[in-house]
Amino acid sequence: MPTRITQIERSKNETRALKAIGEHGDQPDRSNPEIATRDAGTVPTVFKVEGTLYLKDAELLEKLCRDVGNQTRRPVTLELAGLSYLDTDSAAVLCRMKREQNVRLEGLHLFIEKVVELTEECERATKYLPIPKLPLE
Prior knowledge:
By secondary structure, the protein is α/β, with parallel strands linked by helices.
C-alpha cells in the first residue's frame, strides 16, 4: 500500500480540551515543549499517515513537517494509527523528527511503536561505542 499523508483538523472539543490543560489547579510541567505549546493555546498541525513508510517517504514527511512548522510556528503531530509498516531507516527519520523538531507521534500500533523505541535505543547506544581507528599505512 502506498503512503498517504493527509492534514486533518482537530474538532472544536479537542481544541478546547488542549487549551484547558492546567485549569484544574494542577501545574503543568513547563519544561515539556508539548505542554508549554498547549498552554499557550497553540493547536498543533496534525498529519495522518497511512500505508507503508519507507525512507524516501519518511524524508518527504520530515521536510513537510519542517516546512509547515516553520511557516505556521505551530507544533506538528503525526497520527500514525493507519501506518501498516515502516522500516528501520524510516523509523530513524521519525526519531530524528521527534528529537530535532519536537514532532509528536500518536496512535502507534504495537509493532510500529516497538520499531521506533528500538531505533531510539540503538541511536542512544551508538554514542557509547568506541570510534574505530583507521589502520596506518
